[in-house]
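As described in the Methods, two query proteins were run sequentially through the folding procedure within a single session, without resetting any intermediate state between them. The first query and its resulting structure tokens are shown here.
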Amino acid sequence: SSADTTHPLFDSYPGTAEGRQVTVHVVRKLGNDDFKNAVMERLQSEASSWTRAPNTFVKFIGFARVDGSPAALTQVVDGVSAKEYLKTKSVDEAKRMASSRFTTRWKLSDYFRYNQFTDYARILEELHCRKVVHGSIEPGCFRVDREGKPTIAGVGFIQAVQEVAKAHGLEDYRRTARYSAPETLAEGKESYMSDVYSFALVVLELPLKMVPEIITGRKPFHTTEQEASVIAQLRRGDTPRSKDYETFLEDPWWPILRKCLARNHQERREMYKLHKMLLPAPPSETTP
């Protein structure tokens, strides 16, 4: 099938490796041989940590060269992106669920629990518990398999290749700054807390307008089209503000997620704490 060219660094397509079906992510033909060799060295040095990702992630299998270009190999997941999954959900079913289970205006928490998307927080918590940083969280990484179960793609290798590209003066090929934490843009380093920052932004973006009452998500800095302008805002200290998400301000999750967008990474919540806060409250105990 045709290549997926949505990422600026990779061409991704189905393939085989040692008789196994895989997804091949070939680094595009940019840079010189020094760049390509540096990418291979980075893939080799960090592959063992990426294979420690939980089974709820799209598994990193290994690396190879394809026509001289470095490539990462991951498992094949028969599914779609979270956005596509939400777009194709039945509107009639959404209306029925809205009328039978929830209030007339869905809350962000209702919407995500209905779609099992709180599992994304659990998956990232598992990854951090294994001392692995994802490093490149954005909406395209959030996927849903054929059974409707959430999974996350892109662990480790995307971040690694981006860092090598930057070191070789190829910054035009890095991911968008919209989902990058301020300290990542300033210092070029990803961490558990930059994962938390990016995760919160994706949570706020994914909801789509399925029924008239439902809240509609927006991408970070949605009023700014140019990437250079987004970078300029982040460098002068701006982060996504309340006015960017006015449809969420009365939602119980907003104070939780807003804390994750703190400019000072030390003020953000760790992923295990965030996951716990996003879970449904236990039923209250009553005295007989």
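Immediately afterward, the second query was submitted; its sequence and tokens are:
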Amino acid sequence: MLWRDITLEQIQEITKGEKLSTELLRKNIDKVLGLRLEYNYLNQNQYEILLDFFLHSFIFSFRNKFTPEKISCFFSIIKELQLDTKNHDINLYNSFIHFKQLLLKFSVHRPPFSIEIFNVDDVRKISEYVYNTFYRHYKLYQYTFCLKHVATVESKLYQPYIETPFEMLSLGGAMTLEEWKELEKQRKEEEMKRLAEEQEKLNTTSVDALERSTSSASNATFENAEVINSTTAGTFSTLLNSNDRVKSPHSHIKKQLEPIKKEIEEMTNSRLNSLNSRLEQLEIQTKKPTSKK
């Protein structure tokens, strides 16, 4: 960072003149370093604050009789710290760690990682100056130099979509607690009656299904018997005598109907059990006495 931000010729041009006033030094810094082009994103007020910040850094360097090498390194450190204030994510603690790393880089002779430009006394003076001037007002510098993002939010009100409040019902038409209990009792009785009718209908349906399955099995047996009677007597006698090879048509159909019959019985029993449990719950609710408030 030595001679990176300011060269020896620029330092000599800034400090030339017999009577160097503060205003003249300020103008020389602005003219020689060309800060306006580098910081063109700043407005006039921000730029004036930046010039004051650099001006006091040069005054501190002259009062402590820094050599041009020390002035160049110190100016680079100050410039790096000013760039930290542009970022909201870099707080005071992180910036101070950055400052210590930069100062250590120019205080210890360990090439190529660091070079000894400042002695121990210089490090103490620079630390006190930066702490009392820059970090004491770090939040102000951060507020000044942080980039501002302005968001424009426009809200529109659409009349057709305005939700209107619903109409409140009159309390005069409300029912009493006794009327409500009576209605609840009637509703439970109707529910029990409906469940009983549904159970009776299910029983009737299951019986009809069993009768239909039995009749269809009988019809199928009779049809097969008629087919057998229509054949010749010799063939019929052969079929009757060979029981070990050909099974009776009636027993074959019964075996096919057994799974259907079993499935219908299981469905019927399951439905009956659910209806019985529902009836028991309703009977318990109707028998339970109502609590008095």
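The two ends are 87 Å apart (CA to CA). We note this only descriptively and draw no conclusion about the first query from it.
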